[in-house]
Specification:
heterotetramer, A alpha+beta (about 190), B mainly alpha (about 950), C mainly alpha (about 270), D mainly alpha (about 350), B: about 950 residues, mainly alpha, 6 domains, two-stranded antiparallel ribbon, two-stranded parallel sheet, 4 strands, D: mainly alpha, two-stranded antiparallel sheet, 3 strands, about 0% strand
């Protein structure tokens, strides 16, 4: 570096032939006349890879926002053997902890979400009136989860319910079944027993 | 702008550098993506899925071959036939579907009307009720509205129901047409159920391009199939020193097959955990979602890399293997490493506290029992193991038992006298090697013996009469001495010392006196009295005194070199006073005084009084390190000295220390009294591993109460009883509580062995047991083994009684049996049964019954009313085999069928009760009289 | 949007450069003319830190070593990576350690932590280098005295930033480095409870300066490095010191221009 | 091999390495032209690299050098060695030009102005990119350290402050905490801030030079290299468990025991020399030390103002002169105290533990 500074700056002479098809750019009156083609190709490589690096950095940041593992309570839980549930009863024992009602009808057992489909309040089970009633805006649901009054647009959702290897009911909250999509016919949305 | 500006350098050159740096930056960012995506656990998961797919494919093959081909063909044919029929009916199906749509439309229409009306009705009703309740005049208008709307609602409802009925009819028609095909399909599906299930399983784990794409770097947040698995443990926390961090175990990320059956032979890390019924399974005692992995195994559950999880190799071989395979290295900056596999049981004690033994943890139990037995816990304080008995014999009256020479020869090397002794070697160990040290050691030994004898009490000793040695040997075998001791050539109990070479040790008079009543010599001894007669005691004395150890006898006794004595005394004095004062003090001492002083110092220094009662040391404090938190003690607090041939880990230090207690002095320059003092126990590999496990289990880690196996009050009482039973060695003679008696194993005729005590709590009355324990009486006269008198205190006796009761789930009340009024008829029936079933034949000790052999003899029935519980008697008569397997008591009422249908109408239950009633009033004297008359 | 002159050919470049959006952002042509080049400095807020022209000697890398600029650049890098780290870090004793471990184990691109940590070390070296260069070229001399003083303060703040950040992983290394580092504060004359003169500050028997009322306590929020310290250092590290640094940097940059730009011989 | 290592270990004892560094430093500032010439510096560089490469063959040395937080120090050492060489060399070249009556390199260009865009911006841009690459590559190949969770009950042995404060921690060996931890850092900051107000000569501003500014540059380099960087190196690489000194190839043995008994000046005077025992009253006991300290700060400035630094005194005026001397004396007191410790096992010159006041 120090060597070059001792000499007066000598502009390099253009050597490469001019490219006639170059796009019309305002002719630069600059002392450093350089080979346009090589200039462009270096500039091209430079800007292209700079763009790639920027995009890469940004996508790394984006990916960074999605953790691989999170500390959330497990989405599936075991709810004891089916024999613990009586026909026709809405079981509220998992309501607090997992947000699930387990209902046993004559056809089978299903797990109802305790989230009202209107604005996400938690309805109450009124056993004397045999219906779920949401305290926020008065939506009412039958025991099956079907809405019949109030503003709720659709029935309560059901969760995947299976029988685990050890004979206990296994409820997986990560999979939902919605009646209006016809998903209640899915064999995993209820447990025949 | 007129004059062009000077330039600094060529812009082209800049673009060249710009290009180079940009390309390099892009490359380095790609490097980031690469190292972020490359994780070992992903490879393991891929390998596991491959393994799983292979297994499932094999299963599929099997399942497919299990499917009945012919049946399948048949069902398929049926199905296609049904399909054909269906196709031929396609027109009517279309027709019906159209009708169905129309019906649905109708329902929707009527429903809208109904719901509309219904909401008004609900609203009117509400206002009507509300106004009525508040006496609002508007109630009337709502009553009218309600009355007006009600019929309309009703009408709408009827319409709706009608529409629904119409739909149902159409639907039924449709269903009828479709049914045949559906059922055929169902049958086929059912037959292929298993194979479809497996196929689906394979599909889930089979590699595919779609899966690769989902697992690709940058995209793997959408729905990756390779995912970190974790168990979040609600009640368990990692101790972060004054903070508790939620425990989470991600071990299953790599150990994917750990809780699945079928991977028992798979290579690690996929192998199934042994004993899934006890561990990991959701119905087991330790479900993975509650207990996790690191709770027992240790290590860092948060990590998903082999090294950072702090895996610890089992031995050098595994270490070398891991280094090669996983690039394993020791995590220097991480204390809480995994326990090597052989010590895993140490973790059981974290939650299983307060029990004498931990179920199924054999190694830990062995270690604990050894630590109690060898007196480790006499010297080392450990929370939860306080108040144990001193394991060594009482030395307060040692002079009446043996002489000084024997004591000093014994101290030199106890195993020379008795190879099986539990007394560890204290002197002449490796850190005291060399001629100079040997002199010092001998001086200390002689001084100790001197001290012990000088301060010994001299209780009165009886004179031993002449005895018959051969008879004595027989008595030792017959009376049950072998439950605790090995003697007379039989290796049996190890609770007490082996009875060998006593002739070289004790004098006959003392031995005679001791045998007659051990408590006379030492109030604290665990040795019970067998209530020997003078001649019995004399015979045993004669036999034991005839056993000598010639080599020991002829060995020279150690001598106290006066200079060595002076040196040691000086060392002691100097620690308390200045050098010159010490010299002056020493010069004032007489030779005997010197030895006594040195003896006292030696005992204090070696802590002999921790295991032995020694006069003058009643209040002395133990000399050893407290071990209550040894399992978590920081590694840098362990002094490895110059020992480099073992890995520097907690467990290896403990084990080395146990095997070679003085080794860490190796290469160090230390004064005589600065050297390590732990004695040498000569442990076997198994023993030292077990004790190491025990020591590792000693932690004061706080475990949430919810996660612990807490004992109920009753369980605590049982454990107290167990500790006492261990101290008294009841299980040397009796089998119960899951342990088999030693005597039973060396007695040929099981009928001659001491009784089995399973179910004792529900069998005998508490008051009787209490009395019996304090004053044993003969119940089974044919047994030669003798129940000893332990001299138990009332509290101890009650503890044992309650222990037996609680083992059988009973509470103690000390209420005796209350006899019910019984009709004379019934008593008579009882008597008749008693005689007809010939109970007295065995339950009476006569010459003829004894001739049948001990196995056929039974206890005297006159004891019944005070001894046995009436409900037990019923159960016993009903089915003796169920109560005690192998008993000679015949079952008279198989399947509750009476052999004597004439009595009490053949009702077995009534008959048994009659026998019971008779037994509680049984008086053989009266019976004999009545028989005679 | 202006109509293309040759309708047959669609020139994408032209289409873009002549759109209103483009023109609203870039107010001048591609920078090959001196006018454009000057404009590009004047109209760009980032470039505007610089004057349009500088001394030729001052522009050389051999003169400045780019150390000041790189200090600023690495500071920006640290701000960005630091903000990203804050998404996953909770400054409590229960969580801090595990959150850092999560970055190592499973947070995607947890390498952000390495970038931040090594960036911090690099910044210290760069700032030292910058000071070294300024000294060796005598650039602190009048009229730049005050800017040198600001630079010294920025240097101290840089080290404090690094020091406060050192505690946040809440591991043994962090805790004891900070304990050792902050222990010196207890010996502050008069203000530390073990400092000379502190014993003289007493009313009767009541000591005014003790371990609960001295300068170290104020720094640590406790008598020893604990939960309070973690939070305090976090706030210092993420809010207080960076704010001070940004303010002083602005002054520093502004003074460079006001004091005649990059120094040169008179 | 072991012999070389033992020799290096022996050479690296605090006294020798410190003295040797000072000698080298003196030679460097006394003969800058020769020292920065290629003939001298290239062999020295080769020697340094070879020594470093040799060190890396040793397990212990490698372990310490590659401890993640120590890596930056190694980098810093090489960077600063280069730039010190570079700056002094440029200064020497300019000096030579000025001696020949030419203008300095910077002066030849100072009136020419170039456009910031592209010339300066491009340099900055490319350098920023290069810097980013360095950071990324560094992050890829070196993992940030994470040890055990913090445990207030167990302190690691040794416990060290972050590396950039290790010079101060090393000073704790020789000074009371209030001096090493509070006073000296304060003086460093004040001293740095004071530089432009003491050295106000605008000649020598804006270009590399050496001869004209020899005293100023030497002082600065001494402070930076000897009192800051060297102490960091010693504190980081050569202080092991119990803050014992270890040579670069010596294994850190936690049990290493070395004699560390130090005595105070008052004990030397009253017990060793006078043999009358320590006076009870602290003021009497510490009088010699206090007088000595006061003398140190009073006498040399007064004498120097009349003799050697007369011109400087006249140029600066009494206030500036006093501040300068104060700063210089504090700076020089650091090596003085270190040598006193090594030579006489001197612990404190003034020791008044009653008030936590020790010097």
């Amino acid at each position: 570096m120090s060597d070059s500074t001792t000499q007066p700056p000598a502009p390099p002479q253009p050597e490469a032939p001019k490219t006639p098809v170059a796009p019309a750019k305002p002719a630069a009156v600059t002392p450093d006349k350089i080979s346009r083609r090589s200039f462009l190709s270096w500039a091209g490589v430079a800007w292209f890879s700079f763009g790639a690096a920027t995009t890469g950095a940004l996508s790394i940041v984006l990916r960074y926002l999605f953790p691989n593992v999170i500390f959330e309570p497990p989405t599936s839980f075991k709810a004891g053997p089916p024999s613990e549930y009586e026909v026709g009863v809405v079981d509220e024992r998992w309501k607090e902890k997992f947000g699930v009602w387990i209902v046993r009808s004559s056809e089978g057992i299903f797990a109802l979400s305790t989230i009202c489909t209107h604005l996400g309040c938690t309805p109450n089970w009124l056993s004397s009136e045999n219906r779920f009633k949401c305290p926020c805006h008065g939506s009412g649901f039958y025991k099956s989860g079907i809405n019949f009054e109030g503003p709720a647009p659709r029935p309560l959702e059901r969760y995947r319910i299976q029988l685990a290897d050890d004979g206990q009911i296994l409820i997986d909250k990560s999979k939902k079944y919605q009646q209006e999509k016809g998903e209640w016919n899915n064999p995993e949305s209820f447990l025949v027993c | 702008m007129a004059k062009p500006n000077p330039s600094l350098y060529s812009v082209q050159k800049t673009f060249f550098w710009f290009a180079v740096t940009s390309v390099l930056l892009t490359a380095s960012l790609a490097g980031i993506v690469y190292i972020d995506a490359k994780r070992d656990w992903k490879d393991y998961q891929k390998a596991f899925f491959k393994l799983k797919a292979e297994k499932a494919t094999a299963e599929l093959k099997q399942a497919a071959s299990a499917v009945d081909k012919k049946e399948l063909e048949k069902l398929r044919a049926e199905h296609s036939a049904a399909r054909k029929t269906l196709e031929s009916n396609s027109k009517s199906i279309l027709d019906l579907n159209a009708k169905l749509t129309a019906a649905e439309l109708e329902i929707t229409k009527t429903k809208v009307v109904f719901q509309d009306l219904k909401q008004f009705e609900d609203s009117y009703r509400y206002y009507y009720e509300e106004y009525t309740a508040h006496h609002d005049p508007r109630a009337a208008s709502y009553a009218a509205k309600l009355a007006e709307i009600k019929p309309r609602v009703q009408e709408a409802k009827i319409k709706l129901e009608k529409a629904e009925k119409g739909r149902d009819t159409v639907q039924a028609g449709l269903d009828a047409l479709l049914r045949q095909e559906k059922e055929a399909q169902k049958k086929v599906d059912q037959l292929l159920d298993e194979t479809t299930r497996i196929e689906r399983k394979i599909e889930a784990v089979k590699p595919s391009f779609a899966k690769d794409l989902l697992n690709a770097p940058m995209l793997d947040f959408i729905a990756p199939t390779l995912e970190i698995q974790q168990v979040v443990l609600e009640n368990l926390h990692d101790d972060y020193h004054f903070a508790k961090a939620q425990k989470v175990d991600r071990c299953t990320t790599c150990h994917m097959g750990i809780d699945q059956k079928g991977f028992e032979d798979a290579p690690q890390p996929f192998r199934t955990h042994p004993n899934l019924d006890l561990y990991l399974g959701s119905m087991s005692a330790h479900p993975i979602e509650k207990i996790g992995c690191t709770t027992c195994h240790g290590g860092n559950g948060h990590s998903v890399s082999f090294i950072d999880t702090a895996h610890t190799p089992r031995d050098e071989k595994q270490k070398a293997e891991w280094e090669k395979k996983y690039g394993w290295r020791d995590l220097e900056k991480w204390e809480a490493k995994m326990l090597p596999l052989q010590y895993t049981q140490a973790a059981c004690a974290k939650c299983h506290t307060g029990t004498v033994e931990v179920p199924q943890a054999d190694k830990l139990n062995l270690g604990r029992n050894l630590a109690v037995d060898l007196g480790c816990l006499n010297c080392h304080k450990v929370e939860g193991f306080e108040g144990l008995w001193k394991v060594g014999p009482d030395l307060t009256a040692v002079a009446s038992k043996t002489d000084e020479t024997w004591v000093s020869k014994w101290l030199q090397d106890p195993t020379r006298f008795r190879p099986s002794t539990k007394m560890p070697r204290i002197f002449h160990l490796e850190n005291q090697a060399g001629a100079d040290n040997a002199k010092l050691e001998d001086a200390a030994i002689v001084a100790t013996a001197k001290y012990l004898h000088h301060h010994s009490a001299h209780p009165e000793v009886l004179r031993a009469p002449q005895g018959d040695a051969a008879m004595g040997e027989k008595l030792i075998k017959d009376l049950g001495c072998l439950g605790c001791h090995s003697a007379a050539g039989v290796t049996a109990g190890t609770h007490g010392p082996e009875l060998s070479s006593l002739g070289s040790k004790v004098n006959a008079d003392w031995l005679f006196t001791w045998l007659k009543d051990p408590k006379r010599h030492s109030a604290t001894t665990r040795m019970p009295s067998l209530r020997l007669s003078d001649s019995e005691a004399a015979d045993i004395t004669a036999y034991l005194m005839s056993q000598r150890n010639e080599a020991f006898d002829s060995a020279a006794a150690p001598k106290a070199d006066p200079k060595a004595v002076d040196d040691l005394i000086l060392l002691n004095l100097q620690s308390k006073m200045r050098h010159e004062e010490a010299v002056a003090q020493l010069s004032k001492m007489a030779p005997d005084e010197k030895l006594l002083y040195l003896g006292e110092r030696t005992i204090a220094h070696q802590g002999c009084y921790s295991c032995h009662d020694i006069r003058g040391f009643e209040q002395a404090k133990s000399i050893a390190t407290e071990l209550s938190d040894e399992g978590r003690k920081n590694l840098h607090q362990f002094d490895f000295g110059y020992v480099h041939d073992i890995p520097h880990t907690r467990q290896d230090w403990i084990r080395k220390k146990l095997e070679d207690p003085r080794v860490f002095d190796h290469g160090k320059v230390k004064g005589y009294y600065e050297r390590l003092r732990m004695p040498h126990f000569g442990l076997s590999e198994v023993e030292s591993e077990a004790i190491t496990t025990f020591v590792l289990s000693l932690t004061q880690e706080e475990i949430a109460l919810e996660a612990q196996d807490l004992l109920t009050t009753d369980e605590q009482r049982i454990e107290r009883g167990r500790r006492l039973i261990q101290k008294l060695n009841c299980q040397g003679c009796h089998s119960f509580d899951g342990k088999d008696a030693i005597l039973r194993s060396i007695t040929e005729d099981p009928g001659a062995a001491p009784p089995v005590l399973h179910g004792q709590g529900s069998k005998v009355q508490e008051a009787w047991l209490h009395d019996f324990l304090q004053h044993p009486t003969t119940i089974r006269p044919w047994l030669k083994y003798r129940m000893p008198t332990f001299g138990l205190t009332d509290t101890e006796t009650q503890d044992i009684v309650r222990y037996f009761a609680l083992l059988d789930g009973r509470q103690t009340s000390y209420r005796g049996e209350v006899l019910q009024e019984v009709s004379p008829d019934r008593l008579a029936a009882g008597k008749e049964l008693f005689e007809k079933l010939q109970c007295a034949k065995c339950h009476q000790i006569t010459a003829s019954s004894q001739a049948m052999g001990a196995s056929f003899l039974a206890p005297d029935l006159t004891l019944t009313k005070h001894r046995l519980r009436s409900d037990w008697v019923i159960d016993w008569i009903k089915d003796p085999q169920a109560m005690q397997e192998g008993t000679m008591m015949p079952g008279f009422f198989p399947d509750m069928q009476s052999p004597l249908p004439d009595i009490l109408g053949g009702d077995a239950q009534a008959q048994i009760e009659a026998i019971r009633d008779y037994l509680y009033r049984y008086d053989p004297a009266a019976a004999a009289e009545s028989t005679a008359s | 949007m202006s109509a293309p002159e040759t309708p047959k050919k669609f020139d994408l470049g032209k289409f873009i450069t002549e759109s209103q959006i483009y023109k609203s952002i870039f107010r001048h042509g591609y920078t090959t003319s001196d006018r454009d080049r000057a404009l590009s400095v004047m109209t760009n807020v980032f470039f505007h830190l610089h004057p349009v022209k500088v001394r030729k000697s001052g522009a050389r890398f051999g003169f400045t070593w780019c150390a000041g600029g790189l200090s600023f650049f690495v500071f920006l890098t640290l701000v960005v990576s630091g903000i990203l780290l804050m998404f996953y870090y909770r400054p409590t004793v229960e969580h801090a350690y595990n959150d850092i471990m999560a970055l190592r184990e499973h947070v995607p691109f947890g390498i952000m932590r390495e970038l931040h940590r090594w960036g911090a070390h690099a910044m210290i070296i760069t700032v030292w280098l910058h000071m070294f260069r300024v000294f060796m070229t005598g650039s602190y001399k009048p009229p730049r005295e005050f800017n040198w003083v600001i630079g010294v303060i920025l240097l101290v703040l840089t080290m404090l930033l690094s020091f406060t950040g050192y505690l946040l992983p809440w591991d043994q290394l962090a805790m004891w480095a900070v304990t050792v580092g902050s222990n010196m504060a207890r010996a502050t004359p008069f203000l530390g409870h073990e400092g000379p003169g502190a014993a003289l500050l007493a009313i009767g028997d009541i000591q005014l300066v003790h371990s609960g009322s001295d300068v170290r306590f104020a720094l640590l929020g406790g008598r020893f490095v604990g939960a309070g310290t973690l939070l305090r250092f976090y706030i210092l590290h993420c809010v207080a010191i960076p704010t001070a640094v940004v303010v002083l940097m602005s002054v520093h940059f502004w003074r460079i221009r006001k004091d005649g730009g990059i120094s040169g011989p008179l | 091999m072991t012999m070389i290592k033992d020799a290096v270990n022996a050479f690296c004892s605090p006294v020798i390495i410190f003295t040797a560094s000072m000698v080298c430093f003196y030679l460097f500032v006394r003969f800058p032209r020769q020292a920065t010439s290629m003939a001298v510096s290239l062999p020295l560089l080769g020697l340094a690299l070879a020594g470093f490469a040799f060190g890396l063959t040793d397990d212990h040395f490698r372990k310490i050098i590659t401890t993640p937080d120590n890596v930056p120090i190694v980098g810093m050492l090489f960077i600063f060695l280069y730039f010190t060489w570079y700056a002094v060399r440029k200064g020497v070249i300019n000096d030579q030009r000025m001696e020949r009556g030419e203008s300095t390199i910077e002066q030849t260009e100072t009136n020419e102005k170039v456009l910031v865009f592209p010339y300066l911006i491009f340099i900055e841009f490319v350098m920023a990119l290069a810097y980013a690459i360095v950071l990324v590559v560094w992050s890829i190949f070196l993992k940030a350290p994470l040890e055990e969770p913090a445990n207030p009950t167990i302190s690691p042995n040794p416990s060290k402050a972050p590396w950039y404060f290790l010079g101060l921690q090393e000073l704790l060996v020789y000074f009371d905490p209030w001096i090493a931890g509070v006073l000296l850092p304060t003086f460093i900051i004040i001293g740095l801030c004071a530089i432009p107000y003491i050295d106000r000569d605008t000649d020598g501003s804006g270009y590399f030079s050496f001869k004209k500014r020899r005293a100023v540059i030497s002082t600065y380099l001494f402070g930076f290299w000897i009192l800051w960087v060297l102490l960091i190196v010693i504190g980081t690489f050569m202080r092991g468990p119990n803050w014992n000194f270890f040579g670069p190839f010596e294994k850190w043995d936690i049990h290493k025991t070395v004699p560390l008994l130090n005595i105070n000046l008052s004990e030397i005077i009253f017990i060793k020399w006078l043999g009358i025992g320590l006076p009870k009253l602290w003021i009497v006991r510490e009088l010699p030390g206090i007088l000595l300290t006061l003398g140190y700060f009073m006498v040399p400035p007064a004498i120097l103002a009349k003799t050697k630094l007369k011109s400087a005194y006249q140029k600066l005026g009494p206030v500036r002169y006093a501040v300068l001397m104060m700063l210089l004396l504090v700076m020089v007191s650091v090596p003085i105290k270190m040598y006193l410790r090594w030579a006489f096992n001197l612990k404190y010159i003034v020791a008044i533990p009653e008030f936590f006041f020790n010097i």
